[in-house]
Amino acid sequence: MRVLAAMSGGVDSAVAAARMVDAGHDVTGVHLALSKNPLSFRSGARGCCSKEDAHDARRAADRLGIPFYIWDLSDRFIDDVVEDFVSEYAAGRTPNPCLRCNEKIKFAAVLERGMALGFDLVATGHYALLERREDGHTSLRRAVDETKDQSYVLGVLDQHQLRHSAFPLGDTRKVDIRAEAAERGLRVATKPDSHDICFIPDGDTAGFLESRLGARTGDIVDESGEKVGEHEGTHRFTVGQRKGLRLGTPAPDGKPRYVLGITPVTNTVTVGPRESLRVARIGGIRPTWAETEVHDTWRGFAQVRAHGAPMAATISHRESQRVDEEPAVWVELDEPTTGIAPGQAVVLYDEDRVVGSATIDEAVPA
């Protein structure tokens, strides 16, 4: 098969490309230039998409003896990921840009271009497993290394995208991937992982958003609507947050207060006790199904964070309020959880198999 290996310049994508070469595929490496003004060097483990990363990807491709290209997808990345991130925060929601990048860039734009050029698969260094059946169906499953499992951020992929994807690292632990890279003579064997939002390399999310949205002071109120403090912008907060509130009025019981809700229209942040964060039911919109057969009501597991614990739940069809609304789902949790924010993704599992995902738009208190 002709395989397009997405090479970020890190150890995972380099070993993924090497394994596809070992498997006998015709492999071409491609590095995605997602920034208009890439930094010359990364700062520690922050961010990616620097000139250093592009050079590291090219050196790895040279070591493997495969063709290598750089694709400039910066315009589409800005439109589909960065602007989406800013607009979601402006609307009081908490987005996950890594999911959006996987959905819109790595497994949409790259796959579209790759298939137009005659490639059969896009291979990445994500930690997840693919199970291919004789009938052509492909299932997405959790990786062997639970600490590195990335099935959550891949939960936005549909069946077409999964059929044309390859995740060669899903059956191996990260420590063994680094050892393999060293054995192969790949210079990225000891390179630190990037674990921050790639387009905010200094890690200052609030500062980045303020540069785009501006500072707009407003009130912090309690559940009764009484003002208890002021804020410098709703974009600085997310549901479940405790730090940085700087409340002028202490709670009557003296206990810490948490962000319960964000209302950009009135520019207010509502706070209250931790107990008020308890959520029993999650409403999701714009579902994407990795599995082709989904029952109206079924038992499974829900995960709301990249490395969060899976929660037992009953998933069912959610009736739309208007005929023009998109399909939606309800997720009834067996045990209430906390810190659910609109804009997050809820990824649905049948044991270790991803069934689908949806964007959270409602959290019903326990």
Automatic annotation (TrEMBL):
Broad class of enzyme this protein falls into: transferase
Domain tRNA-specific 2-thiouridylase MnmA-like C-terminal positions: 287-360
Sites annotated Interaction with tRNA: H126, Q344
TM stretches of this protein: none
Molecular function GO terms recorded: ATP binding; methyltransferase activity; tRNA binding; tRNA-uridine 2-sulfurtransferase activity
GO cellular component term, pick one: cytoplasm
Protein purpose: Catalyzes the 2-thiolation of uridine at the wobble position (U34) of tRNA, leading to the formation of s(2)U34.
Name used for this protein in its record: tRNA-specific 2-thiouridylase MnmA
Source organism: Propioniferax innocua
